[in-house]
Amino acid sequence: xxxxxxxxxxxxxxxxxxxxxxxxxxxxxxxxxxxxxxxxxxxxxxxxxxxxxxxxxxxxxxxxxxxxxxxxxxxxxxxxxxxxxxxxxxxxxxxxxxxxxxxxxxxxxxxxxxxxxxxxxxxxxxxxxxxxxxxxxxxxxxxxxxxxxxxxxxxxxxxxxxxxxxxxxxxxxxxxxxxxxxxxxxxxxxxxxxxxxxxxxxxxxxxxxxxxxxxxxxxxxxxxxxxxxxxxxxxxxxxxxxxxxxxxxxxxxxxxxxxxxxxxxxxxxxxxxxxxxxxxxx
Length: 282
Ligand code: DGL
Hints:
- By secondary structure, this protein is an alpha/beta fold.
- It has two domains: about 15-105 and about 225-280, Rossmann fold (3-Layer(aba) Sandwich), CATH 3.40.50; about 110-225, Rossmann fold (3-Layer(aba) Sandwich).
- About 45% of the residues lie in helices and about 15% in strands.
- It is built from 13 helices and ten strands.
- It has helices at about 20-30, 55-70, 80-85, 90-100, 110-120, 130-135, 140-145, 160-165, 175-190, 205-210, 225-235, 240, 260-265, and strands at about 15, 40, 75-80, 105, 125-130, 150-155, 195-200, 220, 250-255, 275-280.
- The strands form two sheets. Strands 4-3-1-2-9-10 form a six-stranded parallel β-sheet, sandwiched between helices. It has a four-stranded parallel β-sheet with strand order 6-5-7-8, sandwiched between helices.
- Helix 13 links the parallel strand 9 and strand 10.
- Helix 1 packs across helix 11 (about 225-235).
- It is globular, with a radius of gyration of 18 Å.
- The model has no long low-confidence stretch (mean pLDDT about 95).
- D-glutamic acid binds near residues 49, 50, 133 and 201.
């Protein structure tokens, strides 16, 4: 049964992440599509998602998506690989038909996979991601669907990276130890890898450091630009959804954590001063 509580008027595009990582996606989306309005929701009080079970990631993600719908969004982007890997399919298949079949939720994994085939020459690609994303096996499964056995993936879980970034310790000497360890595991596991996907929206903050550890022939695929381009194409193709997205060029931020903490940490990811509001799930 359709949820009649949801606002029907056009509204902003919702961007969701477990914490701050989605801000790297939001930045590129706003650059590509500055005319739209955006609502960013970071579930900072319950981050990280990467170490949590399927059921918990699904429950938290669904709560946040529903909240964004209630705030007027008709289209929500899960700017989080862990949520895209563990919750997107269930939300699309089971929840949207009940909540409102005319609303849409999209993830960040598919645009990355569509791009990787144009870049790898050896057909060997690496994935750096959270434990949750690696365990879900979503990247290898989606790659197999698109490329069959022409591309093989080796996945490396990097459980320390998100906490290091969220604590602003990612450029420290201590962080180097973990980053080198994971990158070298990946390259040793499959020396033919020529493309590495950063499968976590936090990782663009480590991009330069990662690149400095790689041989020159290895490309690094960061998601922001890919997701932004893919969203532009999506809106162009789906005029019925595009018509439900308001266009005043605004962006509002919401967090489940304390606002002061969100604003000070968000400055790591954004180059502008922002205002944020606290929300709580009851
Ligand atoms: N930014 C999320 C992702 O892309 C992970 C952060 C977390 O573990 O909550 O996977």
